[in-house]
Amino acid sequence: MKKMIVKRLLLLFLVIFGVTLMTFLMSHVIPGDPARMMVGQRASEETLQRVREQLGLDQPLWIQYVRYLKGLLSGDLGISIRTQKPVLDDLITFFPATLELALLAFLFAILIGVPLGVLAAVKKDTFWDHASRLFSIAGVSTPVFWSGLVMILIFYGYLGWFPSSGRLDMDVHPPTRITGLYLADSLLTLDFIAFKNSLWHILIPALTLSYAQLAIITRQVRASMIEVLEQDYIRTAIANGIHGPFLLFRYALKNALIPAVTVIGTSFGSLLGGAVVTETIFGWPGMGKYVVESIAYLDFPAIMGFSLVIAVGYVLINLLVDLTYFLLNPQIKE
Amino acid sequence: MKMIKRFSPAFISVLLLLSAACAPNANAPSKAKSSSPVVVDNAKDTFVVAISADQGTLDPAVTMDNSAWKITYPAYERLVEYDGSSTEVKPGLAKEWKVSKDGRTWTFTLEEGHRFADGTPVDAEAVKFSFDRLLKIGKGPSEIYGIISEIRAENPTTVTFVLKQNFPPFLSTLAANYGGIVNPKVMEQEQNGDLGQNYLANHTMGSGAYQLTEWKKGQYIKLEQNPHSLKKPSFKTVYFKIVGDPSAQRLQLEKGEIDVAEGIPVEQIESVKKMPDVKLLQQPSLLVDYLYINTGKGNPALKDPRVRRAISHAIDYQSLIEAVQQGYATRLRGPIPKGLWGHDPDTPVYDHDVEKAKSLLKEAGVTNLTLDLLYSDNKPWWETEALTVQANLAEAGIQVKLKKVAYATMREMIDRGEFDLCTGVWSPDFADPFMFMNNWFDSRNFGLAGNRAFYKNEEMDRLVRKAASINSKEERIKLYRRAQRIAIDEAPYIYLYQKDFLLPIRKEVKGFVYNPMLEGIYNIAEMSK
Predict the structure, then answer these.
(1) How many Å apart are CA B187 and CA B176, to the nearest integer?
(2) A225 contact B CB<8A
(3) Distances in Å between the alpha carbon of B403 and those of A75, B267, B386, B407?
(4) Could you tell me if A65 and A95 lie in one domain?
(5) Solute-binding protein family domain: which residues (chain B) (predicted)?
(6) Do A200 and A189 form a contact (C-beta atoms < 8 A)?
């Protein structure tokens, strides 16, 4: 297991290097002059040249890349062309919002998806199974921009129960920053006003975001659960008088979860990346919106910083998935 | 003792929790907050505008982005200001001004009593500092003020600008956002010789009626009153709330959570008209939408004015306005739009006449003409516009290939002249026909700078350059009128339409004055509920 972790961490560096090279090349090959975006369209050649020099854009590509890597090593992701602030600062501002949204959506996906899958498997071919199938198919096939709008229309428009955008009401102060996750920070500082308010804001976006992944998890858990329930050791357990939830969760689910873990793990990655649309609809101040605006502006440093964070996130999640695999079934060979 | 030992893990966690609880709680000073989460808390002294995207830098010496101006404009004062809804200027920080006969020396006398938000009085030194700083920073806005050769603070209330040459639009430029006067104390915030750029990117330090007090990135920007301002506005707090989704904006407007919804596209405007508590402001704007015909580096056939006239005749202008702007636009007559001085209502226009177009093409000896049309999704209507133009030109026998690219790429391609036809919008930074005539037609401005048709005509160059160097407005109008006739006859651009300014606003909001030069900027100091 130790060997695996070391191997994976080495791989992580390789992946990061690859990602920096790819994003760097891609963003510099696309025609479009960031210096021009910065100085405005009516600037003279001289001004343009000076700004290009300031940004180091007049240097050969490889020098720019080496410079970028050097900066990375000291935690410097460069200066955003659009916001004119260090990219790292921008990401620190926006990443926690995305992470919080994705984490809660992930939690919803598991808390609803797993039991629903179990239910569908146990009640195979009954009303419950069909209902769960319908629910799942709707989940995978409804685009987020649509389900998000419907949610807003119902819960904000008609019922007025939940707010339609943002992370907090404008007259509520954000909790003192510890992790950047409002729910966690407000609990840690016992700021219940902020906790309640941020919970109201996050519920609907997180549910919307979780729907598609939730559906996939439900289907996966159902399938592997049905398989496990038909195996001999379960029959033996039943013959030995073990019934009900104890049988399901202690004996069956643990094994049924092994194939589901991959799906669940990668679903977190999708949630992080897929938050972009949800963030736009719900006015959620996360990284997704930041990167969309950056792309429109051809803000290289910001785009590269974002890609790096997502890539590192993916690799780490995959590592975690493999570890979970290992914990669930130590017999799996390294 | 034993007890404590046994419970020590629990004891430690309680301690930990307590210590965490000692971290300051931002909402602690028992702010009585209503329990319902969706109370629409939009009081009489609060004004909430929903905007679609967050802002970049707010430094008036740096930003060229019109959307940032809605925050900076009320936070800074300028020597002169636009007068109500007109494009003429009136006294601002300067109560009067004189210009020398040769037009090169401008002397401004400041009105006393203006103070920055920290209480420092605004004086001639601050004015000099602001322009020196802007020129030293040397970004976009410095281009316009490259004309300045010297600024002198004669005494606390008198400041003199000496220009390198006569430049009549100078006064008008001072009313633009980049003419904002910045508190010299910004230098206390300087980092690595940036003249405070990093600080002013997220803060304001002006003498306007409002100042920026909070910016929650991606969520809202909050302005509150400048306690030292001479004006006593009715709104205590102004929020610019970022709501990216148009449908969410519509719902929030209907519920009264926001007072103004800026981001509702023209296709959804009709639904706003049905809301009982909302009115729709509709005014002609100075934002023009046109097509560049690349006369220099494009298809060689486009060098022939007859071919360009043929294209102009092939467009069905009225249907295009209907298709693209649901009719919320006015046909553009000549390069200078209606509402700006210098506009000539008698400028001839090209009718939609397919036969005429065909015969012009025949006359020019052009057959099987294929052109590409460059556009991006920077403006949501450009796609429909490109398709309409394609269909129109097809009727006249011209095949159009659509070329859609990313916006940044599009700008690069415009600059290099890599297109035959291209969609474009233009709006003036200051209220002077210079913004249109000199930018679009002077052959010194090839590419992104303005002459995107790569059009060169010596007579035109002479006319617009002369018009930009004399003070008599009447004389200038005459010169521009002649230049406009050439611009129509030679047809380097297809003049499509002036977009209407459409603003859904709650009925209880009073006092909003629309100025076409300040589109998207609110005169919040004079507004109320």
Answers:
(1) 23
(2) no
(3) 40, 24, 9, 12
(4) no
(5) 88-446
(6) no
CB atoms B408 and A296 under 8 Å:
yes
The range of the structural domain enclosing residue A255 comes to: 88-328
Nearest-Cα residue of chain B relative to residue A85: B198
Mean pLDDT of B10-37: 49
User: Does A11 contact chain B (CB < 8 Å)?
Assistant: no
HSE-up of residue A307 (Cα within 13 Å, Cβ side): 21
Token pair, residue A317, equals 């999640």
Write the ipTM. 0.77
**How large a percentage of chain B has pLDDT more than 70?**
92
Cβ-nearest to B24 among A44, A51, A176: A176
pLDDT of residue B501: 92
Distance, in Å, from the CA atom of A50 to the CA atom of A54, rounded to the nearest integer, reads 6
User: Which residues, numbered 23 to 42 in chain A, qualify as contacts with chain B under a Cβ-Cβ cut-off of 8 Å?
Assistant: 30-34, 36-42
A123 and A145 share one domain: yes
Pick the most confident of A60-64, A249-253, B20-24, B251-255. B251-255
Number of independent structural domains in chain B: 2
Q: Which region holds residue B414: left if phi is over 0, alpha if psi is between -120 and 50, else beta?
A: alpha
The pLDDT tens digits for A123-168 are 888 999 999 999 988 988 888 888 999 999 999 989 989 998 889 8
Other CB atoms within 10 Å distance of the CB of residue B439:
20
* DSSP SS3 for A25: helix
Does residue B519 lie within any of the structural domains? no
Beta bridge partners of B48: B239
Residue matched to tokens 């404008």: A170
Q: How crowded is residue A60: how many other Cβ atoms within 10 Å of its Cβ?
A: 8
Residue of B nearest to A160 (CA): B38
- CA-based angle A215:A216:A222, to the nearest 5? 90
Chain B residues whose beta carbon lies within 8 Å of the beta carbon of residue A170: 41, 48, 219-220, 222, 239, 241
Q: Is residue A83 part of a domain?
A: no
Mutation test of the interface with chain A: which of B22, B25, B238, choosing the one with the most A Cβ atoms within 10 A? B25
The beta-carbon neighbor of A33 closest among B139, B412, B439 is B412
Q: Is the same domain home to B309 and B329? A: yes
Helix, strand, coil percentages (3-state) for chain A, rounded to 5, are 75, 0, 25
Examine the domain organization and report whether B132 and B212 are in the same domain: yes
Check CB contact of A329 with chain B, cutoff 8 Å.
Answer: no
pLDDT tens-place string over residues B59-105: 999 887 778 889 999 999 999 999 988 888 999 999 999 999 888 99
Burial class (CB within 10 angstroms; exposed 0-12, middle 13-18, buried 19+) of A271: buried
- B276 and B500 in contact (C-beta within 8 Å)? no
Residue A83 above 80 pLDDT?
no
Do residue B262 and residue B335 come from a single domain? no
**Whether residue B401 sits in one domain with residue B273:** no
Residues A246 and A206 in one domain: yes
